Amino acid sequence: MIVDPVTARYAGALYGLARRHDALEAVSKDVAALAAEVARPATRTLVENPRVEREAKRQQLAPALAGAHVLTRNFANLVLDKGRERVLLGLAAAWKRLALEERGALEGRVESARPLDPADVARIATALSAQLGRSLTLENKVVPGLLGGARVFAGNRMLDWSVQGRLESLRKKLLEARLPSVTS
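Structure (tokenized):
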């Protein structure tokens, strides 16, 4: 899950406030409801449109925020006031990442040319969990363009064990290698 830095900062501020005010559970539910509302095509189009007035955006989001915690309502209003509507679109992903980090966990994906057995995915996750020092949950994504091997994306790291990755690494080493000088 890729989260832009602005959304990450805003979500981090909301998460910290919710934890400080002992409202993490309530705000988590609000974030889920807000994400569901923003995922609706009509709402998403309205929120993303810069020509639509802020009040129209507030009215569109009002049903999702009706029973929301005051922190969530204030957050949504602040985001709209600052013209940062895109934060609302990525808030759920950023929130999920923060919750995982707090638990010391990570989610990621392993890309392979063919589907991997769940046991293989679990073995990879277990091995990487020890290396990363965090609990890791992986999902398998088939990428037919990979010739073989696998690539793992976890947090902000990528581990490339694909054939292309190994060939690229070999190419770079060969280009950087110093050739012996030949004297006649």
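The CA atoms of residues 173 and 179 lie 12 Å apart. The chain is about 60% helix and 15% strand.
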